[in-house]
Automatic annotation (TrEMBL):
Protein name (record): Membrane protein
A Pfam match: DUF4142
Domain annotation DUF4142: ranges: 38-168
Signal sequence range: 1-20
Keywords annotated in UniProt: Signal
Taxonomic placement: Bacteria, Pseudomonadati, Pseudomonadota, Alphaproteobacteria, Hyphomicrobiales
UniProt organism field: Tianweitania populi
Keyword RNA-binding carried by entry: no
Length: 172
């Protein structure tokens, strides 16, 4: 089961990478990839935040690993705050998962034990790599001052989360 879950996580990562390479080959697509419109940014952040919070609540219930438990608690706190900060910009984030995030949650809900831990770590790694890239892009090219400030202020916490998850991976 662990191999299946890791394979799913790896395939999600490869699919994201393939899409990025495809966009990079087309100059117009590459330019579009360097700019994220505010509504799309808000939508992506809201879905990602929900994934971070809900997957971490599952980790608190399902994982027996102390490092994962501590990380999950931190994710719930920080991403709840990020959601509040996003709303404070005047944006109204949607309350639904992007299809990719819904699929990730379904996988997590059905995983148990060490398989759950491995999948949670894989998903957190992928989600934070994507979030850091998204926030950096919007912070540098966004068109809404309040949302750009939110992106800039939130980015250091996301980078810290990336470092934290890398340390957990290194211990395993």
């Amino acid at each position: 089961m662990k191999q299946v879950l890791s394979a799913v996580a790896i395939s999600l990562l490869l699919a994201s990478s393939a899409m990025a390479q495809e966009k990079a080959g087309d100059p117009d697509m590459a330019a579009a990839a360097m700019k994220v419109e505010t509504p799309k940014f808000v939508e992506m952040v809201a879905s990602s935040n929900m994934l971070e919070i809900e997957s971490s609540k599952l980790a608190e219930k399902k994982s027996k690993d102390e490092d994962i438990q501590a990380f999950a608690k931190h994710m719930i706190k920080d991403h709840t705050k990020a959601g509040e900060d996003l709303k404070a910009t005047g944006q109204t984030p949607p309350i639904k998962y992007a299809p990719k995030h819904a699929a990730m949650m379904k996988l997590l809900e059905n995983a148990e034990g060490k398989d759950f831990d491995a999948l949670y770590i894989d998903m957190q790694t992928q989600a934070h790599m994507e979030a850091v890239m998204l926030f950096r892009t919007y912070a540098g090219s966004g068109d809404d001052e309040k949302v750009v400030a939110f992106a800039k202020n939130t980015l250091p916490a996301l980078e810290m989360h990336m470092d934290h998850i890398k340390k957990i991976v290194a211990k395993k």
